[in-house]
Design brief:
By secondary structure, this protein is an all-alpha fold. The protein has 13 helices and no strands. The protein has one domain.
Length: 357
């Protein structure tokens, strides 16, 4: 007796239509943010003065800019190494595989308004000749989880340090303190969840779904959550000894960011820089990177954040804007390298988008 499986094509079409509408909304939102970012960038350049900005850039020099490019390469190498360690047995990726793939992913993430949606996919596609695509995608997701955990801690401690040294209303201080405690609790709870292998998120999604809460979203979302949990738990079961090294590498990634800011400040600021100032500027930069990732090259918003922190630390608005522009220069450099790699490897943007879906 033959049994035929009926494919719910109507549901698939509905889900695809919904995804298409969401992507269109994101494109419009990204375009609006980009226009506003360009306007912000022009405003800050005008308010600080082109001459002052060029004077700051001149203090860096070619040798200084080469060092900045090298520091950023070391940061990319950290992400590439962490990703390599996130690949589960029996598959393997070499550093020579992951490094160019990360550069490609960073290039697309910076250049395209919706690049954040395909940066991970582009990394997996770049190594598809080394490991199956699903292995590449799952390992990228694992590495991103470690990155997110460490970044959450990095930002939380930065917020704590900032509110202790800036005059703010008591209500704001209390609110930020509570948010920091919440972030720390969630991170600690996340580690315990992985170690004990509790399927809490998928169970919660199923609980809501069975009670007809958000069924439209959870119809496909609960399966994705379950796959995500299985991915992380599976990696921990197979490679518990890699957790600490990958976590430490992500810490080094952020430490190099602080070192980069410290070096730039030592060249462009008349005030003797310190680790505290560099840490705050880098932590705010991380927040902006996360919140405004839809804006290509973080144009305008990065300058706004750097100016706010620089003025709060009495470094001067010009120092903050110049710092952001110099760091944008090294992003432009590595984006160009990434685009060259894309052309040489004959990667197709349409292929990356298709695999992203």
């Amino acid at each position: 007796m033959n049994h035929q499986v009926k494919i719910p094509t109507a549901n698939v079409k509905t889900q695809n239509l919904r995804k298409t509408k969401n992507i269109k909304r994101l494109k419009i939102f990204g375009a609006v943010l980009t226009v506003l970012g360009i306007a912000l960038f022009a405003y800050f350049v005008y308010s600080v003065g082109v001459r002052e900005i060029f004077a700051g850039i001149g203090r860096i020099g070619f040798g200084g800019f080469a060092l900045i490019i090298l520091i950023y390469l070391l940061r990319i190498a950290c992400r590439a190494t962490a990703w390599r360690l996130s690949v589960s047995d029996p598959y393997r990726l070499k550093f020579s595989d992951t490094l160019p793939a990360v550069i490609i992913g960073e290039a697309l993430s910076s250049l395209i308004p919706l690049g954040v949606l395909i940066s991970g996919t582009s990394k997996a596609v770049a190594v598809r000749n080394r490991v199956p695509l699903v292995v590449g995608l799952s390992s990228v997701a694992t590495e991103n989880l470690f990155y997110s955990l460490v970044t959450g801690l990095f930002i939380a401690f930065g917020a704590f340090a900032f509110i202790r040294n800036v005059e703010l209303p008591d209500a704001w201080v209390l609110t930020v303190d509570l948010l920091i405690l919440l972030v720390l609790f969630l991170i600690l709870f996340g580690f315990v969840t992985v170690i004990r292998q509790w399927h809490l998120l998928s169970s919660l999604c199923n609980w809501f779904y069975n009670r007809h809460f958000g069924r439209r979203i959870l119809e496909d979302g609960r399966r994705q959550v379950k796959l995500f949990e299985d991915l992380i738990f599976g990696f921990y079961r197979q490679n518990p000894h890699r957790f600490v090294p990958v976590f430490f590498i992500q810490i080094v990634f952020h430490a190099l960011g602080i070192l980069e800011v410290l070096f730039i400040l030592s060249r462009i600021s008349d005030v003797i820089p310190n680790l505290y100032n560099a840490y705050l500027l880098e932590s705010v930069s991380r927040v902006i990177t996360i919140v405004f990732k839809l804006v290509p090259f973080l144009i305008g918003v990065d300058e706004a954040g750097a100016q706010f922190v620089a003025e709060s630390l009495a470094l001067g608005a010009g120092v903050g804007v110049t710092l952001a522009i110099i760091r944008k220069g090294r992003i432009l450099f590595w984006t160009a390298v990434g685009m060259i790699l894309i052309v040489r490897r004959e990667l197709s943007l349409m292929e990356i988008l298709r695999h992203g879906e």
